[in-house]
Each structure stands twice: as C-alpha cells, then as structure tokens.
Amino acid sequence: MNFTSYDTIRATVTGEITIKRSTFLAYLHPCVSKEQAQQLLEELRSKHWDAVHHCYAWRIGPNGMDYRMSDDGEPSGTAGKPLLFALQRAQLSDVLLVVVRYYGGVKLGVGPLARAYAEAGQVAIDACERIIVRDMSRATVFCLYDDVSTVTRTLEEYEAIFTATYADAITFDVEVASEHIDVLIEAITSRTNARAGSLKISAE
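and the corresponding structure tokens:
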C-alpha cells in the first residue's frame, strides 16, 4: 500500500470550557502507538484522580485507520464518538484527544452533553500547531565544488533536509519525501550535466 502523507500536531495543547458548572478539560497529545496512548491516559487519570470521567478518542497512522474511543461511563455515544468525529473532521492522526469532566451537579442531557464534549475537544484542536507526516527516503549526493550551488539550490527546491561534508569532493547526506526522491535525483543529474552522482539508500 502506498504511503499517504497526513497531518498531526507538533506538541500537546489543552483547552477548557465550563457548562452548567461542569468543567471540561481537553488534552490533545501527539501519540504514535496504542501503548503510548494508554500511558498518557494513565498519567491523566492520576493527575485528575478526582474527576468523574476521562473520555477519549485516538487516531494513529495514515488516514487514522487505527482508532479507538471511550465514553468512560458517560451515556453511550455522548463523549468518545464526538471526540473521534472532531479528530476526523480536522483530519488529524497520530493524536490522542482526552476530555476530563468535573461534574458540576447539573445533568446536561444526551444532546447537550455530546455537544459539550465536541466543543471542548474543538477548543484544543483549534489551538494546535499542525505538522505533516511524510514517507521519507534517504540518498547520498556527490558533486564537485563547481556544482555545489546548483546542487544546494535543487535540494532546497525539493524541500530536502541535508548536511554537506567537504573533502576532495562534496558529499550531501539527504532526506526527502519519497514522492520527490526520483525526480530530485534526475534534476541534480540534469542540472550538473551528470557531473554530480547520487545513491538512493533507502525508503523509511
């Protein structure tokens, strides 16, 4: 199956709303595995040991194909599902969204409760900084000093990450999105009239 790039978040963000004296605390965490999700949940349960509910949803991997949600004692469908839908609408993956509820003594009803969880989750989602996860490939590029500027400009054009080692010739250790690796190598070869050489190492 071909890898599809997707959005995740750079760092944990939080949000908070209060509805009819119930406080909803939202935590949106970067999360790349079920094990990490469970660890983060346990940490939040310990931190908010006095809260009545710790509801959550997570999505992992391309297209968020690996997912789970929990109402944690709230009426069925009022917490985990709204949180999962919020992540799906935002097209975020490799994330865990937890909403901790401190009950304020007033029952909200099924519809208002679901909207409260969705709203709390959205507050955290709106505050996040997105980053793109791409399938990456690595390559080594060799060139003469006369072609350094041409090779550097080409690498920057294709948004490659690279470091250069200077000796009798120059060696670039390159990491670039897999969708760009072949055309990048072709561009370097063409623009240096084949004076620059390259070796594609692997796809990651």
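(Above: one complete record from the training split.) The two ends are 14 Å apart (CA to CA).
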